[in-house]
Amino acid sequence: MNISIFGLGYVGCVSLGCLAQNGHQVVGVDVNQTKVDQINTGRPTIIEKDIDAIIATQHLLGRIRATTDFREAIFNTDLSIIAVGTPTTAQGHLNLSYIMGVATHFGDVLREKSEQQPGAFHVVALRSTVMPGTCAKIAAMIESRSGLIRDVHFAVVSNPEFLREGTAVHDYYHPPLTLIGTESERAGKLLRRLYDELPAEVVVAETKTAEIMKYVNNTYHALKISFANEVGNICSSLGIDSHEVMDIFCKDKQLNISNYYFKPGFAYGGSCLPKDLKGLQTLAHDLYLQVPVISSIHRTNEIQMQRAIALLMRYSHRNIGFLGIGFKAGTDDLRNSPAVELAETLLGKGFTLKIYDRNVHTSKLTGTNKEYIDQHIPHLSRLMVQDARDLMNWADVLVICTKETEFITLAEEAVGKVVLDLVRLPIDIDASSQYIGINWSQDAAEVPTMGLYR
Question: Which positions does UniProt annotate for substrate binding (predicted)?
């Protein structure tokens, strides 16, 4: 494939060499004549393991070259990769002037290219790290300057890179996955061809999803380092080998290093997480240590509770039916159940509630959970119904709090009702009903959470 790469910095230079090594014809484009001259003499523009040999070899084979002529590069390629810088402003925002400057070139040149090459379809792939919505802005600019239609005559797609300095070439050829963000099937197929040689899954997602991934990934990496350092500070104060602790921690691939807990939704609860988190926070406090990451975890949990309350405040004069009240599905444990806290908060605000939970009702009858119910939440006990159909007929709003399979059928039969899903069940909602996911619907996205309800 004929490819142009705009920007010959770190990402651009690595992409130039590696794509050429995979058999593509690649031209680099940069306003810096020195960088252009370096590539055209077989020298890389960066210092990075193995890239010097790759650039030299691919230059000798005639697969790479560089130019300052953006028009010529766009005309003679099918795919263009944008890898220019996105520096941070003093206020913390991204400076998109370089990207938008490149976008204006595409707007001008693609109009001319379309006239001279009827039927041409040019794909612009953004490798630079940008905020969600940037590809759409670039596409709109190209449309306005060219008169062409996005996803018909051209496409702007997100193709974020996950390269680490020092191991960039190795990372390029051994990625955990390859991510493409696009709504154009044609553009997605074209971009997939770049990665036929790589031993990794190609994931095609919505453009905004791909755009945010680099921020999510790197923020999590920063969180892991900060968490490990706070654990290390606690351990060293106690004379414990922190590296041994974290080595053991990382051996658990079922829970600690897994996707088990990485499911956005409602607040955590139960008897273990809150207690042990508080224990580690107290230990750090007693050791006179500052652990802001660990100390803030519960505050984030409280914010998620506030989010659910804010969503339900819209329906304060409606009948609210809870599907599930226990800590999790398949259990009658009510200790530190976030659903219990949510129900009690709503009752305090004057809501009218009823609750259905087969597990808790059964344990109440048999005595398994009776002592806790009688001592701590007898008022909730009086709100519980035995028959889910009775709750369905009575409620205007259903709140799904646990992942019970029977709740899928109940929610799908909730004709004309509001369904607030806190756990993301696979529900095929009736067209007359309104479905709201706490972290995965537009309605939920419009709800502010900071400091609304305490």
Answer: 162-165, 214, 261-265, 269, 328
Q: Residue 35, annotated ligand binder? A: yes
443 is in an annotated binding site: no
**pLDDT of 70:** 94
Q: What is the largest CA-CA distance in the chain?
A: 83
Q: Report pLDDT digits (tens) over 371-419.
A: 777 776 788 888 999 999 999 999 999 999 999 999 999 999 988 999 9
pLDDT at 158 over 70: yes
Q: How far apart are CA 144 and CA 150, in angstroms?
A: 10
Alpha carbon distance 347, 337 (integer Å): 16
Q: Same fold for the domain at 2-205 and the one at 302-444?
A: yes
332 annotated ligand-binding residue = no
Fold of 2-205: Rossmann fold (3.40.50)
In sequence order, what are the residues at sequence separation of 6 or more whose Cβ sits closer than 8 angstroms to the Cβ of residue 99? 82, 84, 86, 126, 128, 130, 134, 138
Has 49 been labeled as part of a binding site? no
Residue 163 assigned ligand-binding role: yes
Weakest mean pLDDT among 162-176, 208-222, 370-384, 396-410: 370-384
CATH code, residues 302-444: 3.40.50.720
The per-residue pLDDT for 271 is 79
C-alpha 181/C-alpha 209 separation (Å) is 7
In the set 13, 135, 250, 272, the catalytic residue is 272
Q: Is 272 a catalytic residue?
A: yes
**Domain boundary assignment for the chain:** 2-205, 302-444
Alpha carbon separation from 126 to 2, 4, 97 (Å, rounded)? 17, 12, 14
